[in-house]
Amino acid sequence: MTKKSPRKQTSTPRFAYKGDRLKPLRAFCQVARLGSVSRAAETLFVSQPAVTLQLQALERELGVRLLERSGRRLVPTREGEALYALARPLVEQFDGLNTTFQDQLRGLDAGELQIAAGTATILHLLPPIIVAYRETQPDVRLSLHNVTGEGGLDLLRQDAVDLAVGSMLDVPADLDYAPVYHFDPMLITPPGHPLAAKADLGLDDLSPYGLILPPRRLTTYRLVDMVFHQHRVPYTVALEVGGWEVIKRYVAMGMGVSIVTAMCLDDSDRERLAARSLARWFPRRSYGVVVRKGKYLSPQARAFVELIKPDLFARRDYYDSGHSTR
Length: 326
What we know:
Layout: H1 22-34, H2 37-44, H3 48-62, E1 67-70, E2 73-76, H4 78-95, H5 97-110, E3 112-117, H6 119-136, E4 141-146, H7 150-157, E5 163-166, E6 175-183, E7 185-189, H8 194-197, E8 211-213, H9 219-230, E9 237-240, H10 244-252, E10 258-261, E11 274-277, E12 285-292, H11 299-307
Helix pairs in contact: 1-2, 1-3, 1-4, 2-3
């Protein structure tokens, strides 16, 4: 019986420094940054031979030369540049771990606040409230979820957000809605449009002109449709598109007219749009806080709700200086 010879096993060279992979990477990054082993050693509070050994071990493991001399400086080779780009953020993140961790702990102690709101609300209504909230609750982790309609209500029901801020016509039985702000409905047209200067503007005057409205699933479309039907006035929709800023742009381009809430109009719109109040036919639009019935509001959420006051959103209506219906 022939005795089998033992199988020869191959092994990867083992270097003692691998027990702490961060040290050679830190040494390499400092040399690449400073261009000198001695300066890197001073920065790391170790000896020059220690830095040299770490660099040599790193080059042996990777099988490439990482540094070369250029004049009096050590500079990364092509391979060294690639490693530096990868290693530097890792080393910096690790070295800053304690500070980052302490910041996270402060954030955990302060808590978090999740809010659902539509684009118009985030752009035009929430900024002064957010500023005031940040002044009193600087460490709270605040997240704004940009959702509209049913999307925000779904987040509320799933407890994915603490509260929603927006406008509601029909309030479901499982939700509470507290209206706080009220804005007039506004007809917007290009400045030279016939409706912009019409002396006695009636709802039927809008019939010949196509309306640019948000998608029909949203509150604004439903409200416009309801009012026109109540007054038995026909209307046409020239374009359905989401977002007040987009609608305003298309109206300014002459693609149609629209009915928007005064909340989304400001001084920057005066040169490109004419606006007239339609409060004679359309109800004022309310905006406020929506929460799930029976939900306990965290201290962070209660602090936010307390800031939502009518006087905080003090603004002059767009149509107060020459744009209103006479």
